[in-house]
Structure formats: structure tokens, C-alpha cells
């Protein structure tokens, strides 16, 4: 019995030895892979990753080039329905047609009056007939003046609301800008600037987007200043025309307005290059073949290329454009103490 128990214990010990050795081998292999992929230096902002690890992580970089960008500020606006302008156009063109008709009647009455006056001088027609023709001429003259005043009134009311430029577009018989807006080949925008601000005299083009995405914003051309300020904010309003917009009427939009002054020097970085940790924006700079430095960005602004950075990055530096999030995850993972990884 004792011999049997001894043999069973002896066999059990040796049956456990291969599994224990195998587990130790797996841990050592895993540790070797992690060390090969990324090993942090004494500086926690620096990450080491060999060429094989970079290829596995899909790391891509680009060299930064200096650019100049005009500062911008944000404003908000709305896509306007041009129906009120269409009504003005219809009223003005109807009044114009009546004016033409009244002008034709007045011209005919003037000719008849001259002919009747000549006949009266030759005693061919009576004085009564001359007086009747004069009365017709006076009535047609008054009708012509009335129609002219009606046109002027429609145009004046339009300028009070829409300004000179839009009023001129929609009170012409043919105007390509009015036709584009009415045929929905362009859209009319109203942008409200912050109070106590104004559009710089040199600004003719702004960029707008309905979801506030600067990278995909579309250009809009200045039409004119609006005659009325915003009744709530007291900010000045401006009319713009967006040739590429196809938005529903009433859509609220964000606008980026160039500021006056000199352009700032900096660099453009693509949107995927930016990563966030604890509310702070970072980028990774490739300092040599296998080392990456995580750098915080204090100030950046969105633009059509991604982000514009002035001061925190220098032209000529090599920035990670693809795989930055992978680098951040690996760097944060390497900072976890060994006893917390179990």
C-alpha cells in the first residue's frame, strides 16, 4: 500500500513538470514580443518601436511643411428661402408691365392731342373735341406717373429688407444670379456676426458647414451687408451665395470668417494625426528610425486640411499620420505596473 502511494505521488510530480515548463516558456515568449514591439525609455513620452512593429501597426508619417493661414472666427447663420424675393420680383415685373402699357397709352394720347390741336387750328375740329383729347392725355399721363411710383415703391421696400444688390438682382427682367437662386442652383445664406464685430473689407469668401465641420466646409461668396441687424444679439448680418450648397431652407449653419491682419505661420496636420488622452490633444513625432515622441498641442484650429498648428510643431519634423492611436495605446499600456497586468 505504501509502495503504491509512493509511486502515484512520484508520477504526479513528473506529470506536472512539462505543463509548468510550457507555461514559463509562453510567458517568456509573450514578454519578448512586447519588448520587441515597444519598450519605453526613462522618458515616459518617448516610445521605442522597431521596424517590424511599425509595419505591423501600420505606422505612416509625413514631413511637416510651413504654411500661412489667416486667422478665423466663428459665426452662425441660416439658409434662406428666396420666396419673398420671388414675390418682390413678380410684383415689380407686373408693375413694369403696367408701366409699359401706360407708357404706350400716354404716347398714343400725346400723338392724338397734337393731331387734334393741328386740326383745331385749321378749324376742322371743334374746341370741345380738343378739350376731350386733352382730358384723355392728362388721364394717361397721371396713370403713367402712378405706375412709375408703384415700381419705385416696390424697389424701395425691397432695399429696406434685402439691400441694394439683391434688390437689383430680383427687379431685373433677366439676371443670372436671381435665376440661380430661384432654380436652386445656388443658395442664399444669412450670416450673423457677433455683436460689435464687422466683416473685414477685404473678405469676399467665407466657408460654411451645416454640422460645424471645418474640414469639409464649402465656400460662400459675399453678396452684401444686410440692412437690419439681428434683433436678439444686435450683431450685423450679411448675405452670401453658396454655389455648391443643396441644403433645406431654414438649416442652421456654422461659418468661418477670416479676420483682418497678417497671416500666421504654422503647419497643417491631417485629422487622424491628433489623439486625445485625459482631455489633452497629442501628436507623435518620429525622432529617429525606432523612436517616437508624444507631444502635447496647446493650440490648434480646424481647417480644410485637418488642423492648423502654430508654435507647437516645427516645419521639417516627421509626424505620425496613421497609427497614432495604436502608439498611444501601447505607450499607456507600457506604463501600467507589472503587478496590475494580471
From TrEMBL:
Signal sequence segment: 1-23
TM region positions: none
| Keyword terms, alphabetized | Signal, Transport
One GO biological process term? copper ion export
Fetch the SUPFAM superfamilies from UniProt. HlyD-like secretion proteins
Per the record, GO CC terms? cell envelope
Q: Which InterPro entries match?
A: MFP_Cation_Efflux
> PANTHER family this protein is in?
CATION EFFLUX SYSTEM PROTEIN CUSB, SLR6042 PROTEIN
Q: What is this protein called?
A: Multidrug transporter
Amino acid at each position: 500500500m505504501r509502495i503504491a502511494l509512493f509511486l502515484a505521488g512520484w508520477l504526479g510530480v513528473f506529470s506536472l513538470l512539462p505543463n509548468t515548463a510550457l507555461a514559463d516558456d509562453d510567458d517568456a515568449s509573450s514578454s519578448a514580443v512586447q519588448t520587441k514591439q515597444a519598450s519605453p525609455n526613462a522618458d515616459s513620452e518617448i516610445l521605442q518601436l522597431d521596424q517590424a512593429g511599425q509595419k505591423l501597426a501600420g505606422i505612416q508619417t509625413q514631413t511637416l511643411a510651413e504654411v500661412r493661414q489667416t486667422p478665423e472666427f466663428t459665426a452662425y447663420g441660416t439658409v434662406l428661402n428666396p420666396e419673398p424675393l420671388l414675390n418682390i420680383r413678380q410684383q415689380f415685373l407686373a408693375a413694369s408691365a403696367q408701366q409699359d402699357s401706360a407708357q404706350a397709352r400716354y404716347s398714343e394720347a400725346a400723338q392724338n392731342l397734337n393731331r387734334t390741336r393741328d386740326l383745331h387750328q385749321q378749324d376742322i375740329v371743334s374746341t370741345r373735341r380738343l378739350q376731350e383729347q386733352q382730358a384723355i392725355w392728362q388721364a394717361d399721363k397721371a396713370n403713367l406717373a402712378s405706375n412709375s411710383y408703384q415700381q419705385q415703391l416696390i424697389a424701395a421696400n425691397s432695399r429696406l429688407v434685402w439691400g441694394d444688390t439683391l434688390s437689383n438682382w430680383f427687379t431685373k427682367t433677366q439676371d443670372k444670379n436671381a435665376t440661380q437662386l430661384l432654380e436652386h442652383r445656388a443658395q442664399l445664406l444669412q450670416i450673423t456676426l457677433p455683436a460689435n464685430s464687422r466683416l473685414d473689407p477685404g473678405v469676399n469668401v467665407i466657408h460654411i458647414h451645416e454640422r460645424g465641420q471645418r474640414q469639409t466646409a464649402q465656400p460662400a461668396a459675399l453678396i452684401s451687408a444686410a440692412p437690419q441687424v439681428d434683433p436678439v444679439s444686435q450683431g450685423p448680418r450679411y448675405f452670401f451665395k453658396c454655389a455648391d450648397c443643396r441644403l433645406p431652407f431654414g438649416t442652421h449653419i456654422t461659418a468661418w470668417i477670416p479676420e483682418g491682419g497678417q497671416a500666421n505661420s504654422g503647419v497643417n496636420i491631417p485629422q487622424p494625426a491628433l489623439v486625445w488622452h485625459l482631455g489633452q490633444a497629442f501628436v507623435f513625432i518620429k525622432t529617429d528610425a525606432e523612436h517616437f515622441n508624444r507631444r502635447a498641442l496647446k493650440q490648434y484650429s480646424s481647417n480644410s486640411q485637418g488642423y492648423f498648428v502654430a508654435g507647437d510643431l516645427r516645419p521639417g519634423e516627421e509626424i505620425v499620420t496613421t497609427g497614432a492611436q495604436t502608439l498611444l495605446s501601447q505607450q499607456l499600456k507600457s506604463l501600467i505596473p507589472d503587478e496590475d497586468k494580471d
